[in-house]
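Field reference: "sequence" (input) and "structure" (output). Example, HDOD domain-containing protein:
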Amino acid sequence: MCATLSRMWFWGMHGTRFSKLGLSGATMTEEEKRHAAQERVDRRFMGVSRDNPITALMYSLALEREQGEFAGEPCFTDTMHQPLPNAQQYLQMKSKVSLLPLDTLKEKMKLPSMPHVVMQLQSAIMREASSHEIASIIGLDPKLTAAVLSLVNSPLYAMPSKVESLERAITVIGNNGVSSLALGVYLLSMFEDTAPQELPLETFWKHSIASAVLANKIARLCNKPEPERFLVAGLLHDLGQILLFSRYPSLARVTLAMQQELDMPLHEAEYVLFDVDHTTIGGVLFGEWSLPRSIVNSALYHHDAEASLGHEAPEVVYVANQMATALGIGCNRLYTADPGEAIWESLGLREEDVRAMVQNVDEQLWAMFHTIFPGKG
């Protein structure tokens, strides 16, 4: 059902454009679909060597995904924005918006204040509040309550029977688990209301959710305590992009064009124009809000294998982000990350584990997407 909904949404958004290009799925032969999928994956991996075992695995999984159920469907990153002409000129800009040092970043970005409900949840988590208090805080927001219960009843948990109350949800997955889910859902829906149209929102949300799903899977596979912590860290790791596009929409949009036209990784394009990238912006915001270090560090380090190594949540989110990007889910059209062999070794991930994780990632992605954004898709 979710996979069907995903295809309906995708072709509703992009079918007309591809029909004009003569690439409609209805008119392409099976061989043409396979060839198109091969070209897309080849381009996504054009900047890395497939001699590396991890990169080779990511490439193989991406190809299987697009030549299987997604055969003939262009990945989100191929169609996410209208390119700007002459992007090369932006590399030679004599003036740009520098967001350094960090005091300047905080001043120019106009970082939002911590929402009251987030403050309450943070305080309750730190005080190890009772399940009744946690339920009462979440219960003040009917939409948040419904979203948390929907997540608990989603394929992520595969409950044997329906969980119908917050108290029951807390009994099943614990105070911290429910609090973490509520925190992640609330922040993502909060930023949904402030994000500008210059950012390809559907693509952005799906990457965030895919990273969350994969982080949750990795945490469970590696027997990490409270896997919801990793899910939420994955869910929020890219919110610095929302802040950047909200404050500087026109200039931030240039980063998408630079990626598309100059084959430049998105976070590197951000450095060119702002002297920082979305990882620093998100990390600074979460630090200002005194969110858990797992969320702060996952935002800061999810493009930095060396900095992630040895840190529990950043290691998991780094790999989850890699996998989502490799599969073509997100705003990064290019797979350029350091394979981070030491991180994979640290987590003990095997090829068969990774293949198993990817098998139903789309179903869980869409289940979470429709839970958090019930009016979309």
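Residues 1-24, 71-81 have pLDDT under 50 and may be disordered.
The radius of gyration is 20 Å.
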